[in-house]
Please model this.
Amino acid sequence: MINIPKGTKDILPQESYKWHYVENIIRELSHVYGLSEIRTPTFEHTELFLRGVGDTTDIVNKEMYTFTDKGDRSITLKPEGTAGVARAYVENGLGSFPQPIKMYYITSVFRYEKPQTGRLREHHQFGVEIFGSDNPLADVEVISIASFFFKKLGIEGLTLKINNIGCKKCRQNYNNALKEYLMGNIEDLCPICKSRINKNPLRILDCKELSCKKVIENAPICTDFLCPECKEHKEKVERGLNSLSIEYVNDPYLVRGLDYYTGTVFEFVSEKIGAQGTVCGGGRYNDLVEEVGGKATPAVGFGLGIERLLLLMETMGVLLKEKEISEVFILPQNDLFQNECLKMVSYLRENKISAENDISGRSFKAQLKYANKIGFKYLIVIGETELDSGIFSLKNMTNGEIIELNKKGLVDFFRR
Model:
């Protein structure tokens, strides 16, 4: 037997309704917020992620699925969604359209990492990206989309953490102060963080090693080094969240794991899905479009893993809409009426009514047993009497009630 690759998972027919439920809410929410869907390729040129995500990140250093194609080009399965959207924004001239451009996506992403609860080597991501606005209201809108999404799903108890990690102008001063502090505590850092001090000291704030966490407890705070513009931006974001009654916690050591973030960063965190408790993360990436070859364009967004989201919902006991069963099962009184069943099923389907008939050659008794086992809501038996009269007995499989209806009456009944 050929087994599924490690770190991947089949979404089976009996589980897919959960995904449909979440995806339908995503699409409804996106419509309400004026977001349009964007779909980018599953793979991109490797250079996109080297330039956009950053060569000091774990994603680029350890986790990318990279290969050389038949044209001797380096290709990478996308490890996250934002860089591809930024490339599409530049390549397709979206900057010439009225700004801001508000987009969302549901996509597969690929990371070669140790599989863990709620995180696979192929997982699925819901992301929101807004390009073309540097106004703090865009940050507030992105955060409010995520907040409302969780509310719509019935997820409670999440903690929203926010921070501002500064722009190019003020980040350097903070990096210098942080580097000086870390050099004085270098012996207590893990080997990876020792190598990060000169390349990107900010990444050390995100390390999960206990020794590094202890060092970080007394590290300089980035908000103490913000320039007046970044400080004002941070304050306006907070006022906007306050006006929407979205509760948050200022976390001065919060950074994101990707190099393209600037200014606002945020995470929605839960304590109910293990040590890796981030359910959703995002922020500003005002330099990304320029990094991938476009004109300087402000941008803000977030991404969340759908597998982790479903795990959280299951852990919290959040009720999902149940799998929908076809409305009605049509069966023939005997083999002579099979084609009449086909006609009735086709008629109902043409009228957008979910109907099924037996396609396995079961006996009448076996068909009844099958209908009960699957859980069809209604049953119709077609025989000579029904064809002569044009009246069909619709049986409610829950309470046994029978209603006599003609074909048009059946359509009206299911549409009511």
Observations:
- The first strand starts at residue 36 and ends at 37.
- The mean pLDDT is 91.
